[in-house]
Specification:
Length: about 425
């Protein structure tokens, strides 16, 4: 129970966070760990109860419902909060998109119609400052919107006469800044291994690149070529990682599906099992399959959840069969014990009888005993009583036969004596 409480405590830490959007995987991983741990503890409890019952003992079932409900209620609440935050984030991004498109239209108007350089430059600065303050926009629109804005910025600077006065200084500074970004991108490509960090820093550096103003035309083509070359290489690195991950996930899913089939086959064998020894062997196999499943890494979330449900269903079905079979076997065992007790009672009633019918009945009782089958732990004690009654019967029978043989021999001797007298 301590493990479950620890997982619940870990989940409760997320309830204190304001932003749950980036925490989806961690929260779901806690849920999977909780369900795996709960399943294992329920399985162990079931086995302990069955072993105790086999030993003639009784132990109380552990009630996991309170902590299970507490965990799932908190998980659902966090899941709903995160869902609402995502909806809010999406709504904000759409509003930000509208604002950025409006700023783009304003910039177009300045480029097309404003003739006063001072007014145009001030308007541009206002637009640019507002643009930088606008938050994220939908990912699928980000590249196109940013490229259009960057394109208009370049057009603006190229069309403004003031650009002639500041272009040399700005071009040099912008070139240096773009070189710095290129260097950071190359470091990111060559040194950083964590893909999440690579993705986040790539977005940041691309934003930084786009925010830097224009450079000399003779420099721009070379800078742009280097920039897109390293960016494509980083994207190749990201794609290669996810492709490798996808292949690993596929292998993991296939391995888990194989274990699901194995569990389903064990359920079929469980339906045919007729002895406690067989059930013990099957239970050990189930434990082994569960351990194998735990060792397999994750798969794609949707498939992983589906395969887990199938595996959990097979596990539950197995232990439900085991519970029901145990009841059936116990009932059958009780019936065999009662049947053998009746045979013992009848054998004890016949043990002092020596007639032919009694002999035939004792022989029939012995056949009936064999046909009833094994009665488990009580077998040796019951057999000792039954055999004792049978041995007593045959001992009495042997004694009677011995007395009869002795009487015949004595009569034979008397007859011989009479014959000898007659001869004399």
């Amino acid at each position: 129970m301590e493990q479950l409480n620890t997982l619940l405590d870990q989940l409760q830490t997320y309830a204190l966070r304001d932003d749950l959007v980036p925490c989806g995987k961690e929260i779901n991983d806690l849920k999977i760990s909780f369900e795996d741990t709960l399943l294992e503890m329920e399985r162990v409890n079931q086995i302990q109860m069955l072993e105790a019952r086999d030993a003639g003992e009784t132990i109380d079932s552990t009630d996991f419902s309170e902590i299970k409900n507490a965990f799932l209620d908190l998980y659902k609440r966090l899941h709903e909060q995160r869902k609402q935050q995502i909806l809010l984030k999406d709504a904000l991004e759409k509003e930000n998109l509208k604002l950025k498109r409006s700023l783009i239209e304003d910039l177009k108007k300045i480029i097309e119609s404003e003739e006063n350089i001072g007014t145009a430059f001030n308007a541009y600065k206002s637009i640019h400052e507002t643009w930088k303050k606008v938050g994220d926009i939908p990912r699928d629109q980000r590249d196109a919107v940013q490229k259009e804005y960057s394109r208009l910025i370049e057009i603006f600077f190229y069309t403004m006469r003031i650009y002639r006065e500041i272009k040399t200084h700005d071009y040099k500074r912008n070139s240096q800044n773009k070189q710095v970004v290129l260097h950071k991108l190359q470091q990111l490509r060559n040194e950083e291994e964590d893909i999440k960090t690579v993705e986040q820093q790539l977005r940041t550096l691309q934003d930084e690149w786009e925010e830097i103003g224009p450079v000399q035309n003779e420099e721009w083509d070379a800078l742009k070529t280097k920039y897109w070359e390293v960016v494509r290489q980083i994207y190749d690195k990201i794609n290669a990682h996810y492709e490798a991950q996808r292949q690993v996930y596929e292998k993991n899913i296939e391995a888990k599906k194989a274990l699901v089939l194995q569990m389903q086959e064990l359920c079929v064998h469980a339906g045919e099992a007729n002895s406690f020894k067989t059930w013990d062997a099957l239970t050990e196999k189930v434990k082994s399959v569960q351990e194998e499943y735990k060792k397999i890494g994750p798969g794609a979330r949707k498939e992983n959840d589906l395969v887990w449900k199938q595996f959990r269903t097979a596990i539950d079905a197995f232990f439900e069969l085991k519970k029901n079979k145990a009841k059936e076997q116990q009932a059958a065992l009780s019936e065999r014990i009662e049947a053998k007790k009746k045979l013992i009672l009848e054998a004890e009633q016949l043990k002092d009888s020596t007639g032919k019918e009694a002999t035939q009945r004792i022989i029939q009782l012995q056949k009936d005993w064999k046909n009833i089958g094994n009665s488990g732990k009580a077998e040796n004690q019951l057999w000792a009583k039954f055999r004792g009654a049978c041995d007593a019967f045959f001992a009495a029978k042997d004694a009677e036969n011995a007395a009869a043989d002795k009487a015949l021999e004595e009569n034979y001797e008397l007859k011989l004596a009479v014959i000898e007298k007659i001869k004399a």
